[in-house]
Amino acid sequence: MTVPRVELFSRPGCHLCEEAARVLRAARRRFDFELIERNVDDDASWSAAYGMDVPVVVIDGRRAFKHRLPARELERYFERGRAKS
Question: Which of 62, 37, 63, 41 is nearest to 52 (CA)?
């Protein structure tokens, strides 16, 4: 079974982005997944896709969360088996 790929699209100075990063890092202690953090300002296509909608969490290529990332909702996502550990 492959490890889920979780991408966090964010930008510096965004307090919601910082909170989402904390939630994801904490979740890695419980669930096995690859975490990739991306600054939307580093790539024109990311900026065009996500603009001011950051943070955006993409799991295995599918947008899973936008703006806020409640820890309990992320846990439920993993527990339901959409992204198994």
Answer: 41
> What does the mean pLDDT of the chain come to?
91
Residue 85 lies in a domain: no
Asked whether residue 19 is domain-assigned, the answer is yes
Question: Which structural domain range is residue 33 located in?
Answer: 5-79
Q: Number of folded domains in the chain?
A: 1
pLDDT digits 0-9 by tens, 59-73:
999 999 999 999 999
CATH number at residue 68: 3.40.30.10
How does residue 80 score in pLDDT terms, banded at 50, 70 and 90?
Answer: confident
Could you tell me where the DSSP H helices lie in 1-85? 15-27, 44-50, 71-79
pTM: 0.89
Task: Name, in order, each residue with C-beta under 8 angstroms of 70's C-beta and a sequence gap of 6 or more.
Answer: 23
Say which DSSP state 40 is in: G
